[in-house]
Amino acid sequence: MHGHPTDKLVAGSIVGGILTALLVVLMVWLDFPSDRLYSAPVRLAVPALISACLLFPRPLLHRTVLRAKRDPNLLDEDLNLLLLGRVLGLIGGIIFGISLASEIL
């Protein structure tokens, strides 16, 4: 009926990795922020921050503020693993996005 909590870890890492890799490639392709004005760490921090702003608010709100209104079948362990998966996906997406951007562009 319900999946194993590890499914949340895998799903979070896949979603985080794909979203972050797409943002890294898109930002490098659009040259935002410009490579003439900013260094490489700043150019990677911008898509990482945008990705974090898209990935983390909902699970964090369900973990803290909206705890009473969340689905009763969603356990704290599931949310913890979902957040951990999204962190791992964010890190992996940055690495994968760098490799994709260097090969494509």
From TrEMBL:
Keywords of the record: Membrane, Transmembrane, Transmembrane helix
Transmembrane regions listed in the UniProt entry: 9-30, 42-61, 81-101
Protein name: Uncharacterized protein
